[in-house]
Design goal:
Layout lengths: L1 E6 L4 H6 L4 E8 L2 E5 L5 H7 L9 E3 L5 H4 L2 H8 L9 E4 L1 H4 L11 H4 L4 E4 L5 E4 L2 E7 L8 E6 L6 E4 L9 H4 L5 E8 L9 E2 H11 L3 E5 L3 H6 L1 H12 L2 E4 L5 E4 L3 E6 L18 E6 L1
Parallel strand pairs: 3-4, 4-5, 5-6, 10-11, 11-12, 11-13, 13-14
Antiparallel strand pairs: 1-2, 1-15, 2-3, 7-8, 8-9, 9-10, 15-16, 16-17
Helix pairs in contact: 8-10
The structure holds zinc ion (2 copies).
One zinc ion binds next to loops.
Length: 289
């Protein structure tokens, strides 16, 4: 199982300024490629990284906020080969698929009808995809339909969790227990908590309770970006012993039986396009199980 990040920003001002991009991430498992929360720039970034969006086989939009859904319809157009074939699975929630009063829908009926299967998820529900199970996890967020998820393979070491946007609550740990890799949407630094989101202190608690082999901090708001996510992650790591890294465009996380490893590009000095066919993966790190 492998995760590739198409950005690491989230929240209104990080999205408006595009300081860290907001394309969500892709998970590759079995023969599936699942695109998760494609916010603004998902398609552009995937193109810059040399990825073909037509290879995406499923799309998970966790809730109805633009930093999570704006490129969803284009992903569907790619997944269906330009709407010429009924192909791919769309996993999402009521607000995104049908709308509910003030919010949504975020994906048109025209697009929903072109995918092979459109699945409306609620917390606790499971869906089988490519022999893996996707369980929607509870989130407490301003869109009340928001879910995160846990993805499990047949083998007990293939477990990945994603919090999506949520505030910390006591049972959050239970929703993501067993995760070897935890992707946490940490919008604010330190204890600079805002409603409906995690801050560093919340993430620290969560890492301590769940004890994954690796926690990846993403969906960083402007204050988090300005404070410096590296030092925030270092603090989590020192206090919990959980290896913690900030997401970045092009970060790949690989979950193998014996190890969780990641490959990271050096900070971009110029456009990603200039990397071309050269080897952009310069810094390699492996954490042993
Ligand atoms: Zn968000
Ligand atoms: Zn949100």
């Amino acid at each position: 199982m492998e995760v590739l990040f198409l950005g690491s920003g989230g929240g209104r001002f990080a999205t408006i300024t595009q300081r860290k991009r907001t394309g969500g991430f892709r998970i590759t498992f079995n023969k599936e490629i699942m695109q998760v929360d494609p916010g603004p720039g998902a398609i552009l970034t995937s193109s810059e990284l040399g990825l073909d969006p037509r290879r995406v086989t499923s799309l998970f939009v966790t809730h109805c906020h633009p930093d999570h859904y704006t490129d969803a319809e284009v992903v569907i157009e790619a997944m269906t080969y330009g709407m010429t074939r009924r192909r791919g699975v769309l996993l999402s929630v009521k607000s995104v698929l049908e709308g509910d009063g003030r919010i949504g829908p975020a994906i048109s009926k025209y697009h929903r009808e072109r995918v092979k299967e459109s699945v409306m998820m609620e917390a606790g529900e499971e869906f089988s995809l490519g022999g893996y199970s996707v369980r929607a996890t509870e989130a407490k967020h301003s869109d009340p339909y928001t879910v995160g998820f846990q993805l499990r393979g047949n083998k007990d070491w293939e477990i990945l969790s994603y919090t999506s946007d949520t505030e910390y609550y006591r049972e959050l740990e239970r929703e993501h227990s067993g995760a070897r890799v935890l992707i946490a949407n940490v919008t604010r630094p330190g204890k600079d908590r805002i409603r409906w989101h995690l801050c560093t202190e919340d993430a620290l608690r969560l890492a301590d309770e769940i004890g994954p082999e690796l926690m990846v901090v993403t969906h960083m708001g402007l204050k988090m970006i300005q404070k410096g996510p590296e030092s925030e992650c270092q603090r989590i790591e020192e206090e919990t012993g959980v290896r913690t890294v900030p997401a970045d465009t092009g970060l790949r996380v690989i979950i193998d039986k014996d190890s969780v490893s990641f490959k990271k590009m050096l900070p971009r000095q110029s456009s990603l396009l200039e990397f071309g066919g050269a080897n952009p993966w310069i810094k390699n790190t492996t954490t042993k199980k």
